[in-house]
Design a protein that fits this description.
heterodimer, A: mainly beta, OB fold (Dihydrolipoamide Acetyltransferase, E2P), 2 domains, four-stranded antiparallel beta sheet, 9 strands, B: alpha/beta, Peroxisomal Thiolase, Chain A, domain 1, ten-stranded mixed beta sheet, globular
């Protein structure tokens, strides 16, 4: 079963995840086999759309060919922790607030993050 | 009522054997696997027909590589099994052999590890994927953890690099190590960088290799007149798997902390009694974080302790005297078994110019993706 990672409302992405309504643990991406924390399953698991806003737990420059890009560990405001690629040339620090946006790479819709001043 | 390993029949390591870890070659795994097994048998003074069960730690060779190898020792009909537990496969095969002897199922068992690098697909976990695809590589993951740790505790790049300098120095004296060359601080700090401050010397090499150990009961020691002074008792064998930890908490560290704590409790020792440790230093930051998780250093002070020489051979606790994964290498299946061989060598006092003086108690630690953690504590008999 292949499901989507996100959907775009305009250029505002929603990240598609899951919440356990029994213990309220939340995770991304959406996997509905059972809750890792308490084991609840079936109707106890609810689909959730997480806002793509959060903060940087860590970030690092990763070499790619002749250049590099910024990879980050991100804690969403809604709870889940995930990896993301951050665009932009601004210096980034742990704790910076970031937001997701829809982008396109090689003709394919992807999610990228950028620093948010909000 | 459950029991710990120490409450069961005593288990002793009496034989160790290795074939050098190295870059992938044209040698068949059977050749270097048998080399390690025969070395362990010779070291123990025991013949293959005396082995009553056999476990092979392997993750990269495909289905059922064990009998294809050990049949060349002469078939004896003993129970055998392949053990796959990611990076902890060799540690898990050792645990299984110990449990056979401790429970009384056998008097003599062997644990081995053999592997050859290959691109093996991970099991499909049903996930639709993630937002970063191929960039979830281990080096990137540990570079993220490195930066997070450095930011939090103010660790310098020189302190981080000291881990690789120490472990390459140790590995340069180990004829079984994949990397046998000392590296300077300047070399460990130099570009090109793979991710963040990590160049390749901050990362373990994954090659091929083999390791084997023989474990026995006291009955077997008596029957074969095995020397007590070359025997090392296995005080604890603890295997745990990951739980859900607090937000932002590193799961490998949390899992290591609870596994090592349980092992020390079961062995009835405290961390400050450990003389020698082989831990899962696949990346430099791991040695620092795991040393703290095991209670060797206070939180945030591991890097300082390492750069001050406290974990050198001759320091208060020798960490990775074999060279660790960073220098000895990480061929996956053999790695955990090879750690037991190194700890045994140290506790026997047979490690030559890598010898930690007066080593009496040692600990071996591996984590595996999935995630699992195994800790064994050994003590000279």
């Amino acid at each position: 079963m292949k499901t989507s990672l996100f959907k775009l409302e305009g250029d505002i992405p929603k990240l598609l995840g899951t919440e356990c309504t029994s213990c309220h643990y939340r995770w991304f991406p959406a996997i509905t086999f059972g809750c890792e924390r308490c084991g609840a399953h079936g109707h106890d698991l609810a689909s959730r759309e997480f806002d793509g806003i959060g903060r940087i737990l860590s970030c690092v420059e990763v070499a790619e060919g002749e250049g590099s890009f910024t990879l980050a560990l991100i804690e969403l405001k809604d709870g889940p922790v995930l990896g993301g690629i951050i665009d932009g040339s601004e210096a980034l620090s742990i704790g910076d607030r970031i937001e997701a946006y829809g982008s396109e790479v090689d003709g394919k819709e992807v999610i990228r993050f950028r620093r948010s001043d909000d | 009522m459950t029991k710990t390993l120490k409450q069961m029949r005593p288990v002793y390591v009496v034989g160790i054997g290795l074939d050098r870890y190295q870059r992938i070659s044209t040698r068949p795994y059977i050749e270097f696997g048998l080399s390690a097994i025969r070395a362990a048998l010779t070291d123990a003074g025991i013949s293959w027909p005396d082995i009553e069960s056999f476990y092979l730690g392997t993750a990269l060779l495909g289905m059922a590589p064990g009998r294809a190898m050990i049949k060349h020792l002469g078939t004896t009909g003993i129970p055998i099994a392949q053990v796959e537990n990611a990076s902890a496969s060799g540690s898990t095969s050792f645990r299984q052999a110990c449990l056979d002897v401790a429970s009384g199922l056998t008097d003599i068992s062997m644990a081995a590890g053999v592997d050859k690098p290959a691109l093996i697909p991970r099991a499909n976990n049903g996930s639709p994927g993630d937002l970063i695809g191929k960039w979830l590589a281990p080096v990137n993951h540990f570079a993220l953890l490195t930066n997070q740790y450095r930011e939090h505790y103010g660790v310098t790049l020189e302190q981080l690099a000291a881990v690789a300098v120490k472990n390459h120095k140790n590995g340069s004296k180990n004829s079984f190590a994949q990397r046998q060359k000392e590296r300077s601080l300047e070399e460990v700090l130099a570009p090109p960088y793979l991710a963040g401050p990590l160049n390749r010397l901050h990362c373990c090499p994954i090659g091929e290799g083999a390791a084997a150990v023989v474990v026995v009961s006291e009955d077997a020691m008596e029957k074969f007149s095995l020397a007590l002074e070359r025997s090392v008792r296995v005080l604890a064998s603890v295997s745990r798997s990951e739980r859900i930890y607090g937000p932002g908490e590193n799961w490998d560290v949390a899992l290591t902390r609870e596994t090592a704590e349980q092992a020390c409790q079961e062995a009835e020792i405290t961390a400050d009694q450990l003389d020698v440790i082989e831990l899962h230093d696949a990346f430099t930051i791991e040695e620092i974080m795991y040393a703290e998780a095991m209670g060797l250093s206070k939180q945030g002070e591991g890097a300082r302790d390492i750069s001050a020489g406290e974990f050198d051979i001759g320091g208060r606790c020798a960490v990775s005297p074999s060279g660790g994964l960073l220098s000895m290498g990480h061929p996956i299946g053999p790695t955990g078994t090879g750690q037991i061989a190194e700890i045994t060598r140290q506790l026997r006092g047979e490690a030559g110019d890598r010898q930690q003086p007066h080593a009496k108690t040692g600990l071996a630690h591996m984590v595996g993706v999935g995630a699992v953690c195994l800790v064994h504590i050994l003590q000279s008999a």
